[in-house]
Amino acid sequence: MNMHTRQNRTRGIIALCMILTLTLFATLSKAQAESNEPEASFSEAELAQMLAPIALYPDSLLTHILIASTYPLEIVQAKRLQSKNKLLPTAQLMEKAEDEDWDPSVTALLAFPTVLDKLSEDLEWTQDLGDAFLQDEERMLASIQTLRHQADEANSLAEMENMSVSRVDNQIIIEPIQKEIVYVPYYDPRVVYGHWAWYNYPPVYWAPYPYYVRPPYGHFYWHSGVHISFNYYFSAFHWHQRHVVVVHHKNAHHYRHHGRIVTSHGAQRWQHKPAHRRGVAYRTPAVKHRYQSHRPSTLYSKQVRQADRHAIKHSSTSNKLHSKSIHTTRATRVNNLSHYNKQIAKQREQKFANQMHHKRNMQVSDRGVNKHKGGNNHAQTQQRLQQVSSKPSRYNRVQTKSSHKPAHKAHNNLNSQQNKASHYNRVQTKSSQKPTQMRSSAPSHPKVHNQKNANHKSNSQRSNSQKSNGRSHTKQRD
Q1: By the 8 A CB rule, do 203 and 196 touch?
Q2: pLDDT tens, 357-370?
Q3: Which of 130, 297, 307, 337 could form a disulfide with 70 if both were Cys (CB 3.0 to 4.6 A apart)?
Q4: Per-residue pLDDT tens digits for 167-226
Q5: Around Cβ 438, how many Cβ atoms within 10 Å?
Q6: Helices 59-68 and 123-135: angle between axes, nearest 10 degrees
């Protein structure tokens, strides 16, 4: 018993060691695969393509859009809250949003329903925008300035009547004319930027916003502005250093603009908060390791899915080939079986035909033997008939015997017959001599009379025959 328990323990320990080594090898291989994975950063054309519909927004609103795009799940939740409370004013809607644990930029977008609609409807674009901003913030801001300079060269910025466009150190800054009212423009990116340099990457185009009106001139559509009476001005672009700056704003419920945020006291660079990501995977492994996420990157997941699809396709093709081979082997087997069955059927038919032919030959031979026997029998019967004809027949023997009988016996028989006839005649005469009265009183029936005549004739015939016999007998005696 002790030996068995020791063996079982050692086997269990070996199994656990193997499982641990396999798990460690899997994690190391996964980490190595992710480390070997390319960075796959967005190109200049891709950045310009996704930034085209929002690059000409005011800086304060654009900073909120970029920050909120890094938290796509909270954007969806904010859109649901807004759709449930469409009739509420902006101030009450903001009070409800304070109960939610959302990022302040997501809460600030509740006052801009058109922007929140686009962010929640096109989630793929929103997630790509947030991933590009997290991956390389400096390149993102440089691409925005490139698009603004391109629109300025096309003389499109001069038509922005509700915005103030300023140029500081070759950086284009767009701000609302009135700080308490923010306007959201709509424009066609295929027209505003003039000649589009990236033909294979056309700009993202959105349908016109509802209730927007275009002036008689220009390419921009406008709607009523949003009155700011909530936490809104807490982020801005630091264009020289190419990053976003934020200030502390939690203690102010009615925050208003008080000068430039970049140079204000307590301003610091914006930092991404993974808690508000709420489990959404990052795009690249570098960003994932930067924010210490345990979920695999989206690129790695895509590669795994592609590998799985390729494996499924390969397995399906191999299965198809295997099924085809099985089908061909089955077809050959079926053909072989059918050929074998046909051969067996032919053999059985040939055997049956041979048996029938043999039976027919036997019947023909039996008929010949019977004919031969029948001829011999005919000859034997003829011989027997000749023998029988040569012998005296039984009738002749009986006749000869009867001819040799004694004569006195015949004479006695003749006398007895004569006596019987005389007795019969006497009886007939007595019956004829009855009184006539009785004869007349009795009804004369024709049938009875005929019967009597017939009896009389038969008696006369018998008497005549007896007489003739007596005569013949006397002649024989003579």
Answers
A1: yes
A2: 888 888 877 776 66
A3: 130
A4: 998 999 999 998 889 999 999 999 999 999 898 999 999 988 888 888 888 889 998 889
A5: 8
A6: 100
